[in-house]
């Protein structure tokens, strides 16, 4: 599987930072489920450059998504996120939080999530950051 | 000096708590067999009458994050809160509070650093299901003080498999050089073949039953040479994209010692991943 673009480690880092910081905040999980595009825009403007545990006067100055990444997040496109090398554990954990509640039988979402990735063969996209 | 009374290696399946406590229609068909195997496994720790538990696991991007990622970290605190919001949400895990054994933490850090392992440390560590799952399965009273040790099996670049084995060997020596009369069990959890967030996840079995079979044989026989010959950071991608967690089993093989055959070996073929349970008694099986 050849990615359409070559995400570098730093780009993957910011995708992971989004998944990580949203997943651990129940309010953001709900906002991301219901208004993904708005949440992604807000997060990139307000949170992407926050050094975790540091006050805002010491924020990073250079982190931003590119258009492909921003669109993948805004459309809940976990297949694209996998292709871009977002950490699969982070993506899976957050997306289970978003969509497992709609299951009509146990593991329905988890299984369909895997099926949507069926076209990927080894080696999977690099996840190193 | 302290005595290592048991070495235990296990998978850490976050679904066990919910499966084993579910009743009626919510109870999955495999729950009774699973619980029965866990009770037998638990008895192997109980019989060893430990005073202290050294707990090896891996933080799942809870407290340890990519802006500041240690490879090996030892907790040194009087208490450890445990389990995280997303583990309550997804697995129904309960909040827990475990006591720490700070003196042993300090000893492991000092002796580990002096032995060439540049161990990171944490004085305020909230631990996750890699350590609470074996507490739930093996010591649900959660009454013994612990020393948590985290390894990075998750965020590349990772240490080499051999380094996990070496750290395990060092932990064994270091615990046995702790000036204490206490009885220590070293418990570590990892994975056999496992896929998370990829196309092979949540299948009817683990993603690579053949790997699982070989892995169980390596562990049960203490076959470190065979294991190290075949397992590399690259090779672990093939059985499943989260299989690097197997390196924590390799660490525990190091604790048990090369060639040490496990005194208790059990497995359970579940959907998604195979469960595996191993206990070694370095000083012979305890008598009742």
UniProtKB/TrEMBL annotation, chain B:
Keyword Oxidoreductase attached: yes
Span of domain Extradiol ring-cleavage dioxygenase class III enzyme subunit B: 8-259
Molecular function (Gene Ontology), one example: oxidoreductase activity, acting on single donors with incorporation of molecular oxygen, incorporation of two atoms of oxygen
Record keyword Oxidoreductase present: yes
Coiled-coil region: none
Keywords of the record: Dioxygenase, Oxidoreductase
Top-rank lineage group of the source organism: Bacteria
Pfam families: LigB (PF02900)
Gene3D superfamilies: LigB-like
Protein name according to UniProt: Extradiol ring-cleavage dioxygenase
Organism annotation: Micromonospora acroterricola
């Amino acid at each position: 599987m050849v990615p359409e673009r070559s995400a570098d480690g730093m780009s993957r880092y910011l995708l992971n930072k989004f998944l990580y910081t949203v997943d651990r905040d129940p309010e953001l999980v709900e906002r991301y489920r219901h208004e993904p595009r708005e949440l992604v825009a807000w997060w990139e403007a307000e949170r992407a450059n926050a050094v975790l545990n540091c006050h805002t006067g010491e924020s990073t100055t250079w982190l931003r998504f590119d258009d492909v990444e921003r669109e993948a997040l805004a459309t809940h496109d976990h297949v694209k996120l996998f292709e871009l090398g977002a950490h699969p554990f982070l993506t899976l954990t957050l997306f289970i939080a978003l969509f497992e509640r709609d299951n009509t039988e146990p593991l329905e979402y988890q299984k369909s999530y895997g099926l949507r990735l069926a076209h990927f063969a080894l080696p999977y996209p690099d996840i190193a950051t | 000096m302290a005595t290592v009374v048991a070495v235990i290696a296990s998978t850490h399946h976050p679904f066990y708590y919910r499966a084993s406590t579910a009743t009626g229609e919510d109870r999955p068909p495999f729950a009774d067999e699973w619980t029965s195997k866990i009770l037998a496994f638990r008895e192997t720790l109980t019989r060893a009458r430990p005073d202290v538990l050294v707990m090896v696991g891996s933080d799942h991007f809870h407290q340890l994050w990519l802006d500041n990622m240690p490879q090996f970290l030892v907790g040194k605190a009087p208490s450890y809160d445990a389990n995280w919001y997303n583990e309550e949400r997804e697995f129904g895990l309960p909040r827990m509070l475990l006591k720490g054994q700070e003196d042993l933490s300090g000893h492991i850090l000092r002796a580990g650093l002096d032995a060439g392992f540049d161990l990171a440390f944490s004085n305020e560590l909230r631990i996750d299901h890699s350590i609470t799952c074996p507490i739930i399965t093996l010591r649900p009273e959660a009454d013994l003080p612990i020393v948590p040790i985290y390894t990075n099996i998750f965020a590349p670049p990772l240490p080499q498999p051999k380094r996990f084995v070496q750290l395990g060997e060092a932990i064994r020596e270091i615990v046995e050089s702790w000036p204490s009369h206490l009885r220590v069990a070293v418990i570590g959890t990892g994975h056999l073949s496992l896929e998370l967030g990829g196309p092979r996840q949540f299948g009817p079995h683990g993603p690579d039953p053949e790997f699982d079979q070989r892995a169980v044989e390596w562990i049960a026989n203490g076959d470190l040479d065979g294991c190290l010959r075949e397992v590399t950071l690259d090779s672990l991608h093939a059985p499943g994209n989260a299989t690097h967690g197997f390196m924590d089993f390799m660490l525990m093989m190091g604790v048990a010692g090369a060639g040490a055959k496990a005194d208790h070996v059990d497995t359970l073929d579940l959907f998604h991943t195979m469960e595996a349970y191993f206990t070694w008694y370095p000083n012979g099986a305890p008598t009742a």
